[in-house]
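In this section we walk through a basic example: taking a raw amino acid sequence and producing a predicted 3D structure, encoded as discrete structure tokens. The instruction is simple. Fold the sequence below.
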Amino acid sequence: MGYTHLKAPEAGTLATVDIEVNEYVQAGELVATLLAGDQIEVSVSVPASVIRSIERGAEAKARFNSLEGKVLAGTVTEVGVASVGGATTFLVTLRLTEGQDQVRAGMSADVTFVFESAKDGPKYALPISAVGEDRKGRFVYMLQSEGEGLGTVHRSPVQVGEILSDGIEILEGVKPGDLVVTAGVSRIYDGLQVRVPERAGSEPENVAGDQAPTPEPDVTP
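The resulting token sequence is shown next.
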């Protein structure tokens, strides 16, 4: 009979009992779920592109829609070292430092992490199509406006970082206010004169020399 008595490691509440009386139980089979302790934890899957920026002890916030959007503070206690289920996400555990009396097991939350700004870290992201590469390295084409709806594109070397959900990181070579050609990079060249679009999303035209007009790429500030 001693094998039939299960003792909880600490006081708590049984959330579920997964077996019936007189049921045969296999080794390792789930018998019951115990909610114990006074600290509520939230688990969230984090993309591989930002997992390196999250460390144990970092501050974070969890927003619960089921609590009328209440935001509760917490601290990161565990950072996954392997992807979850072969995917490109890693499991991070956040322990709430407030609101334990309000949150219940099974509630969903949106977790926000606060990252410190690195002085030498990525500053911008551009569409992958904006970055060209040849024997001289990676580059983008900048658009220099010359007035009257005309401009000239100039090749500018760049240093790139990781590929993110919104494009590719640009570590060096781009500054605020630059107009960057984001499409048709393979069809233009350094010094080419183009017609500057009057509004975002329009396509400038190639007006260099006697060449036939060709569609030009979008320009992104």
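Looking at the output, two observations stand out. Residues 2-36 form one domain. Residues 199-217 have pLDDT under 50 and may be disordered. In the next section we compare this with other chains.
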